[in-house]
Every structure is written in structure tokens, then in C-alpha cells.
Structure prediction request, 309 residues.
Amino acid sequence: MSKKYFATTVVADAHPSDIYGLDTTPSVVVSASGDSAVRVWAASGDHAPLYTISTAHRVGIHHVATCTERGLVAFAGFDGTISIWTLAEPAACLVTISDDKVSFWAIRFSPEGEYLAATSLDGKVYIYSVGDDSSTLSGVLDTRGTPGLSLDYSLNARFIASGHENGGVYIFSTETARLLHSLPGHVKAVRAVAFSPKSSLLAAAGDSSIITLYDVKSGEQIFNLAGHTKWVMSLDWNFTGEQLLSAAFDSSLRVWSIEQRENVATHTEADSMLWTARWVKAPTGPDVFVSGGFNALRFYREATGTGGQ
Prediction:
């Protein structure tokens, strides 16, 4: 059964350069780009701009991570550093994480916001304990791989997954800090990994343009989703875990049914390649997602009652 979505809001000049990073909470969308300013938008209604966060990442930001439980947002910049801020206006910087020997890349909070995980260009995953105004390195996960390009924390807080430039995909136990699975199926860079809401599945994709689904418990490859023709840059599950959203350099957004194992909706944004897309994970109401490409943010909403065979 197909699904239909329509663009409700297009913000043509959301940023002065490509939008690399997006994350959402039930109430806001946070976007970041090659400039140092971060913009916060309403997640519902007309998606109006709410406020701007002027960060110290002068050469721009490539990843954004929010924590709804603690009202925090983190940014990873092209300068190799991470900053953690309060998300409510007026936003305030709580801590900056930097290391002269480490250049951080992808970031993700643990579900309760106690920890922040970060991949690095040295191939390791660093875990920081996040206080109210400080951070402490609490662990390092060694993948023995090439630069880490993607990262996710499972919602049950038991697992961390990382994707790497050499095609490596790894699942770690947060309880033991040990590697549980080195996953097969990718020989090219893995630019997105995402756990399902029940933490039972992991989706991974990247330069091969194929999305691979794995069983988290066994590490077995379950099935592939094919349709994109260029690098897949972003993956995100909807609130129920029934659908997976992908964004790629072929300028397309695709919604996949996990039960049907097929593409059920496609949108093409012909004016730019896409760097990122995220669902607004609200427990009620129609599904809403947002995409980021060159300059523009586009918000999409499910057209309810319009599905068909």
C-alpha cells in the first residue's frame, strides 16, 4: 500500500549554505549548515522560525543531536569540536568538548541524555558523561577501523552502532563496552546508521546506495532496500518503527515500509542533493518529516486517508 505526503512548508533561504545537520523533538526542529548559526523552527503549524543560536563553530556544523529529556542540543563542527547547549530560548552553551588529537564527527545522546557518544576521524567512538555544566570522558570504543561517519544510540540504551569510511558497521554493548557484532554487507562508506524504536533492528546505508537491515540480537543481515541511485546520507525511523525515511544525493526522499519491505513514497527535490532528513516524532497526529539540502528546508505531512494499492 502506497502512502502520500505533501509539502506543507518550504523555507527557501533557511541557511546561507548547505544544510548538513537536522534533528527534531516533538516541538522543535534544529537545523545547521556551513555557517556558524543554528536555527530553531516550530515542529508543527506553519513551522515558523523561533530563534537563532550563534555558536562558536566558525567554519560550520555538520551534525546535530537533541535530547528531549534534558532539553539539550549538541553540535559537531568542521573544526573537530563539539558544543552542548540548552535548547530552550535563550540557548546557552554548557560545555565544549575538544581534543587536539581527536577530530569528532557524528554525535548522538543516550536516551536520557546522561551520555554523548561521538565518532572520530581516528576510527574510535568516544563516550562522554554529560553534567549540567561539564563533561567527562567515560569510555572509548575501539573499532580498529577507518574514520567513523555515522552513529546511533538505541532507545533502550543498551547498544551503540557506528558506520565507517571503509564500510565497517559495528554494534557495541553499552553495559560491557564490548564489540557485539561486526556486520557484513557494506564495502563502501557507511554514512547513516539508525536503530529502530524497539532497538531490535539496525538500518545502515551509504555510498553503495543500498539500505541494509540487521537483527541487533544476532547480527544477521535480514534484507536490503534498493531504490536510491547515489549515496544515502541519512536514515530515520518514524515514531512507531513501521517506516524508515532516507535521504540521498540523488535528490530523493524515500519512505520505506518495513513490513512490506518496499518503497511506499518518494519525493524528488530536483534543485539540490539531500544531506539529511528527520521525522518529527510526535506520538499523535499525521506523520511529519523535514529535509535539508542546499539552503532550503522542506516540511512534509502525511495525506491521511489517501493510501492505495
Notes: The mean pLDDT is 94. The chain has one domain: 5-302. The CA atoms of residues 217 and 288 lie 30 Å apart. DSSP finds no helices and 28 strands in the chain.
